[in-house]
Amino acid sequence: MWAFAALVALPLIEIALFxxxxxxxxxxxxxxxxxxxxxxxxxxxRGHGLRGIRLLGQTMRDGRDPGGAxxxxxxxxxxxxxxILPGFLSDLIALALLLPPVRAALYRAMQxxxxxxxxxxxxxxxxxxxxxxxxRVIEGEFTDVxxxxxxxxxxxxxxxH
Length: 161
What we know:
- The protein has five helices and two strands.
- It has helices at residues 2-25, 27-61, 67-84, 88-97, 100-113, and strands at 124-125, 128-129.
């Protein structure tokens, strides 16, 4: 329900801000700000796309967790899109997303709320697990990683055995 309220409220807030700011600085200056922020958004999207891919590759080569780099790149792209959209509230949100401490705080908040889940499904016939078809066998080892019993991890969070 809050998403619907936000979808209704945001355009109304943007219109009110256009009227208020347009009344203070004039229509020409208001239009110049809107066009200028859209141009900045386009430049940001064009320039950051390739840079984000390079940063992601470097992060993975260094063996670090690529989640932070992916999140950073995504937030800068969202900021570029918000700058292209006409409106002063969306521009303020975009400018906030361009600040590294804001992106870091959002990433930490997202990590705190994220839940990783995995499911293993075994299909059985007559009470016995189904054998894989073909002659391909994959062997592996596992380590119990219950909280408080975790092995020391490297900078990426993965461990080597």
